[in-house]
Amino acid sequence: MSIDRREFLKLAGISTVLGFGGVSAVTGLRRTLEASDVMPNPEALVAKKWGMVVDMSKFKTEEDYQRCIDACKHVHNVPSIDNPKKEIKWIWEEHYENAFPGNEAPYLSEKIKELPFLVLCNHCTNPPCVRVCPTKATFKRESDGIVMMDMHRCIGCRFCMAACPYGARSFNWEDPRPFIKKEQGNYPNPEFPTRTKGVVEKCTFCYERLAKGLKPACVEASKGALLFGDLEDPNSEVRQVLGSRYSFRRRPELGTQPNVYYIF
Ligand code: SF4
Ligand code: SF4
Questions:
Q1: Which residues fall within 8 angstroms of residue 99, CB to CB, at 6 or more apart?
Q2: Among residues 163, 127, 173, which one has the least CA distance to residue 148?
Q3: What does 25-84 look like in DSSP terms, one character per residue?
Q4: What would the pLDDT profile of 19-36 be if each residue is shown by its tens digit?
Q5: Is 146 buried (19+), middle (13-18) or exposed (0-12) by CB count in 10 A?
Q6: pTM for the full model?
Q7: Which residue is closest in CA terms to ligand 2's atom 6?
Q8: Shortest CA distance to 134 belongs to which of 2, 14, 6, 5?
């Protein structure tokens, strides 16, 4: 079903007036981007709950990080904006103290303190961002747990950004299109929509690639440093690794239940 933006904003306004309890008024309108709609392809990769494992032992050089970041930027037309107040981040480097606040042991090794961690949306099982969105522009797919972002439904209220404790969402303060890097060829990528001023964006676990039978772009570029698979399948690679090595997640004390795990 499609509605024009004005009609949708009207509904969103009603929803906001009603308070968060009123969001069900627009629930029935959002059906695109559900896995069942975009995955008619028999080759599509499917899972009950997608998750990622970041193997920090495999990140040895800056290039190892950059390869993953650039792959994501390239396939999703993520702009490169130098101003930290306006930058758009889907997957990025974060130092330990920012990635895992509250975990700083007094005698933490310099290596850990200095090591950048690769961070992204955790596709939380219990996502606070989804709960606060008045228009359901961000929602969790029932089929595979991906926390999606429908940019066409985003009204730019930024409630989701305030609710996410991981800084995993970015707001387009200006038109991002002029900031899409041209050096890496084929920019903008015609297979993924560009965004506009006034909308929030973030990692969507490459739902569009999964629908084509491809793993996420960052995973493919990582040369084995990022693992991706079904956390509900005990035979999947991610489960095998998590079952045999010590792992940790970002801010588990918050109860959001992140589905991105870190190992050393
Ligand atoms: S990391 Fe943030 S944006 Fe991603 S699902 Fe969790 S709360 Fe939402
Ligand atoms: S899973 Fe896809 S969208 Fe998410 S950070 Fe990796 S490449 Fe970007």
A1: 117, 119, 250
A2: 127
A3: HHHTT--TTSHHHH---TT----SSEEEEEEGGG--SHHHHHHHHHHHHHHHT------T
A4: 333 333 333 344 447 766
A5: buried
A6: 0.87
A7: 218
A8: 14
Start-to-end Cα distance in the chain: 46
Ligand 2 pocket test target in 54, 72, 74, 210 with most atoms within 8 Å of CB? 72
Find the 185 Cα to ligand 1 centroid distance in Å.
31
Find the DSSP H helices in 103-262: 110-114, 128-132, 159-163, 207-210, 217-221, 237-244
Ligand 1 atom with the smallest distance to the CA of 147 is 5
Q: Atom of ligand 1 at shortest distance to CA of 163?
A: 7
Q: 205 CA to middle of ligand 2, Å?
A: 5
Query: What are the helix (H) ranges across 135-236?
Result: 159-163, 207-210, 217-221
Give the Cα-Cα-Cα angle 133, 135, 137 (nearest 5 degrees).
75
Neighbouring CB atoms inside 10 A of 125's CB total 16
d(CA 233, CA 240): 9
Of the pLDDT bands very low, low, confident and very high (cuts 50, 70, 90), residue 18 is very low
Beta bridge partners of 93: 118
Instruction: Give Cβ neighbours of residue 226 (< 8 Å, ≥ 6 apart).
Output: 52, 53, 54, 55, 68, 118, 216, 218, 219
